Amino acid sequence: MTRTKPILIKLMIIFFIALVSGQTARAACEVSCAAICRYTCAFTLTGNCSDEEAFNKVNTCCDSAYENTPGLTNCGRGGELD
Amino acid sequence: MEHWSKRALGSPKLRILAVCAAVSMLVISVAVARGLRARSQSKVARDALVEQMEKAPVFPIRIQQDDDAPVRIVEATVQEISGSDYEKLTSEKSNHLLVVSAPQVKMVNVSGKTVQQVMLVVNDASTQQSQGIVMKNLSVESGSTYTISPASFVKSETLTAVDQHGTVTSSLKPPMKSKKFWLPFADKSQIQVRVGIGFQDGTTWFNRDQRRGN
Question: Of chain B residues 25-84, which have a CB less than 8 A from chain A?
Fold first, then answer.
């Protein structure tokens, strides 16, 4: 019992480290973006992260791009409702 | 004046100089005219390519989506041209023999909620490179269809020209002449698309394997 406890703790630590590093590896992505028109923005993802994580980064990047791109026009073509 | 010119041209050195200047002017004029002609011929070739591309066949690409996706991609296609046609169209070099366009993606909102934001991710399965487009401030009601076209990836540009009579004409640059219209991915069979959705009520949706921590 006294020997199994430290082994269990070690295993738990290893599991925790693996979990955290796995999460970090997945979340390590970079986004670059450019505003195309008002409210439409193109982006490139480098690295590995889920779409949910990318979504927040893309929005931050694009909001900044909209602010810093002068003379953006309304999107006249492209995404269309049928 | 006449007296001066007669006297000036009477000198053999100046006469040679005048002949050289006239010949140089002639050579320069011919070169400029040829350059202009070549440029207009190249423009004609590019416009023919634009027309050809508009009629080019489309190829379906892979769609990544869960069975219960609230916004269903019903069609995703690309077009493909040769590397040399790409160079003629965009005036940019390509490392690929074939170049693939950005996708046309048609989706239907079956969520029962209004979609406000669409993030389209275009992924190359062979290299795991991704790029995409995000569209905000939408109002796609439940039951509606929404289409993202390759032109959505291109910033609108106006081309303005002045002819020899001084007439100014402006036209929208065809989006396929922009390199942004084309993907940097070599093989269309490796291209896949998926969406992330933002609803008007503030909630979001992603494929299960694309949620945080997966």
Answer: none
